[in-house]
TrEMBL record, chains A, B:
Organism in which the protein naturally occurs: Stylosanthes scabra
Residue segments, region Disordered: 326-351, 418-455
Domain of life: Eukaryota
Keyword annotations of the record: Nucleus, Transcription, Transcription regulation
Domain BHLH as annotated: residue spans: 444-493
UniProt cross-references to SUPFAM superfamilies, sorted A to Z: HLH, helix-loop-helix DNA-binding domain (SSF47459)
Main localization, broad class: nucleus
SMART domains noted in UniProt: HLH
Basic residues composition-biased segments: 431-440
Name of the featured protein: Transcription factor
Localization in the cell: Nucleus
Amino acid sequence: MKFEVGSGVCGGGGGGSSGGGGYWNWNDDEEEKSMVVKILGKHAFDYLTSNSFITNESMLMATMSLENLQNKLSDLVERPNFNNFSWNYAIFWQVSESKLKKDCVVLGWGDGCCREPMEGEKELKKIEALRLSFDDDEVIQRMRKRVLQKLHTMYFSFPKGYGGPGKCFELGKHLWICCDDDKDGDNEFLNCDSDYYVRAFLAKSAGIKTVVLIPTELGVVELGSVRIVDENLDLLKTVYSVFSPPFAHSSLFNGFVNVNRDEEKFFCGIDIGDRDIRVMDHRLEGVPVPKIFGKELKVVNLNLGRKIFKKKLAARKIEERKSWSTYPNESNGIRSLKNARDGANGSSLGGTQGLRQGCPGIFAPIHPSCTSNVAKQVDWGNDFLLEKFQPPQQAPIHIDFGVGSIVGEREVLNNSLSCKDEKSGVTQERRPRKRGRKPANGREEPLNHVEAERQRREKLNQRFYALRAVVPNISKMDKASLLGDAIAHINELQAKLKVLESEKPTFGNASKVGSSRFEVNHEEMTCSSEVDIEANQKVVIVRVSCPIDLHPASKLFQALKDSDMMSVLESTLDATNKHVFHTFVIKSHESEQLTKEKVLAAVSGESNSRKPD
Amino acid sequence: MKFEVGSGVCGGGGGGSSGGGGYWNWNDDEEEKSMVVKILGKHAFDYLTSNSFITNESMLMATMSLENLQNKLSDLVERPNFNNFSWNYAIFWQVSESKLKKDCVVLGWGDGCCREPMEGEKELKKIEALRLSFDDDEVIQRMRKRVLQKLHTMYFSFPKGYGGPGKCFELGKHLWICCDDDKDGDNEFLNCDSDYYVRAFLAKSAGIKTVVLIPTELGVVELGSVRIVDENLDLLKTVYSVFSPPFAHSSLFNGFVNVNRDEEKFFCGIDIGDRDIRVMDHRLEGVPVPKIFGKELKVVNLNLGRKIFKKKLAARKIEERKSWSTYPNESNGIRSLKNARDGANGSSLGGTQGLRQGCPGIFAPIHPSCTSNVAKQVDWGNDFLLEKFQPPQQAPIHIDFGVGSIVGEREVLNNSLSCKDEKSGVTQERRPRKRGRKPANGREEPLNHVEAERQRREKLNQRFYALRAVVPNISKMDKASLLGDAIAHINELQAKLKVLESEKPTFGNASKVGSSRFEVNHEEMTCSSEVDIEANQKVVIVRVSCPIDLHPASKLFQALKDSDMMSVLESTLDATNKHVFHTFVIKSHESEQLTKEKVLAAVSGESNSRKPD
DNA sequence: CGCCACACGTGACTC
DNA sequence: TGAGTCACGTGTGGC
């Protein structure tokens, strides 16, 4: 009925995978703890630490794991859609089984992914930031980020029916919670479910304004954003689809989509069926709906003028289906991850140009039919939850087709084309087992190998998507161009940086220079520029200090210092609207011409190489 | 006897491929023309434009094209070796046939690649720059770069025996020309060949100090560097190998390497032979040289502790050999491009950490035996030049092996192992024709497809290497990590840049800000910082002005300006060794506390968004 | 041995 | 149509 988390090659479903980090051990790290206390307050912290919700992952076994979990989550988080929106965090609460109480189904940490706030979001957060002094606020921001991160990697667990995810899972209904806490007291997070209090508090502390919980067969997907995001049916469907095992999609499709049949042709992000196994939906037989179950299904609501869906091969599907229980009648294909990504977040393809400009657009329903009201009525159906879990039939029945697989596939194609069902034909009993492109050459190992390779590819693509997001002005959309543009961009940035840094000659480490040239710093005297203000008697004395190398007259100072025969008689300063004028009257023991030349030489010479001393 | 440039899939050999750009039409662009005149002088320009050497590519047909030409060239240019050296430009002068005079073999533009000077090289160029004012020099630099680029994309051609490449090709000897033109009059470029005058002049103008010409069967490889590069036998061998068709390598090997037999085991960068077709060199038969022709051949002189050579599959070789005339006796393998790269430039793998720090190391011979003198004695042999050109035997004899190719390969392996020659065995007459992994399924198209895919992969890898070169602190060496690090690096750079730019609020364009913060500028009043010195009477008055935004006390000035209720009573300035202290005594009509808060707020607040007015 | 990363040939698709 | 891009399954080498 279950298999261990992390068994097989489905590493994404494992507990402490890459995004996970580890168990937040409150006792080990005093610094962390005090930080959390500072952010959340003592109340929340006590609640949190005393709360039994925090479990160790080792106490749970995932009932079933989902492949590419981390990738799917990070997809939602790291890849902005064409509206420049992506979720700030995504967690998958996985259906697990407590090792202590075998019959107790709980939702445990599956995997999670979060990201740093983007530019536009920082602005938003700044507005709603706690009213603190500027300095403190920065620190707070940083700490918040860490807490948020910790939060996401924490191992909460929710018994079925308990907590937000638990409730969500039990009811089979999604939750879409928005909280614009400009009005501070009225926190919808807190109202919605008292069991959810802790995490609501945490979320609120982190500036999260929208939390979405979406039940799937395998658990609950939780998404959070610092923005206020309108409810969106496409998103719900897509996420459901992505985070469900393949066999369930037809259930979804039959049940869910029937809510609004017209939507089928706009069924953003779901690509079911493929060319090789043309299992037509009976309902649509003969109806000239243009290949909804075929390969022609496209995103029609992306005004980018680019079809972003690609299909996977039948081999992939069969391969996947093999890992799950096989329901031949429902095997009209699965959504490809790529489609899922595009559907859930939109595509960054072709729309990344202005991504980093902080476009204020919020992910919003595009089709009139996808309104919040419609989505709210959707019942996800509970009947298929928790009932269909079956172990993957790992029975080592291996069929080797022997000959070139292309021929084999063609045959299959012909068969399925004529019979509308891959059950027919002589190859029926073998095909569900294995029908990859090359049916491996004897051993069972390449099966895992294939899966590992898939994940590697997926990861690579993930990075490519992420890279696309950070590189502006991508000339072409192919990988090579992307890399080229990235290289160019890096070079450009480095050149810019060099120029900027050459302006202010390094003193100490360069990064320190950049961090604070002009900051109020009362407690410690660093070597960066600073302002000291004291008010006594009737006047305010402002003392501005800066490293000599950063001062506009630094070279002059150096010249004066180098030649101890010169002395400053008078120094005045004038500021206009645009310029500051320092005037130094210098006297030396030599002739004025000599002094002039000296100063001129010192000031114009390439004396940058000297060390500041 | 030949095939059209660009025919087939060997796109790299085409005339105006990606690196090429296009024909430098002097008549069309007056601006360009005057720029060139300014850079090169009228003399050179006239010579250039009146010279018949400039040909249109359409007048030439490549006699044979080399696969991955652009990749190979950009490899030499864009991928620094472990000494941080890479060539500034690389051109392949391709053996072509004039369409006008069919019997006239000329060297025409094959492809070319150049890059921007690196940091360290800029320093070098600055030293030898024309003595111009500082500002003008920047412009000149930029123009030079463009001219250099144009130079590289120009369509010179060299009849056999004429010009540097032509001579080089005719003689079958390489040319290694260094010119340290600090002593300006004595230009070795000019001395070496009068026909080469134009390009020598151009090269000199571009700051090129080393030009290497290496003849191969298919043309002449020209490399240039702004550095002085010592003659290097490894480089010569490697480049020769890379830019020769596969069948010629044994010729090289038999003739060239025999100069110094001991070098064979150090034959840096040449990986001949592979595991599948173990054609042993007769000379070494039985000799326990550790698999020089086998897969164990490694770079032994890279102290990076990493083996950087990988092997290609036999399929690749056969595929390639198929494109050329097949000389079974000489088919002891070809160099893989990857190896070529590593050999010619060294590997950036594992050594990229300090690459951008402008390491002054120059590509130098590593083996004692690889001295310039040895290299100078090498005769490339002329007998195989131009004699072996044969059209690819495109006869559509198609043999489909039907069964899984792995078995097929294994058979071949066994055969060739036992017979030392793949000619033996029943598949002899078909195998030379086609023996890919999957021998395609009927049509001839996938043959080119395979090649195209190879090139795509190679290009992608190329970019990956280039990316590795610009990303510091690469955590792991795999692609995904590289991408991740690149993304992190971009983000980091962008953050740094943001900080630096926020420090000095933009006035005008940001790039201008960076160019000159403290420069003597007598003739024109720009808005950058400047020093004005006048000497009258007994003292020297130095006036330093800078944009108000760049001044350390800019925010204070702004605060004072914003609140006109404050006035500065006194302003003093003190400079120590390390710091400059501005002290402002400020009086306002309000209480001192209020004033203090105001100043504090103004100084610490986010007032960066305001425009300087 | 298994895992990981890579390169390869190939099919599918797009423009 | 064909060149280019991508994903896939597979082989393989290194650890």
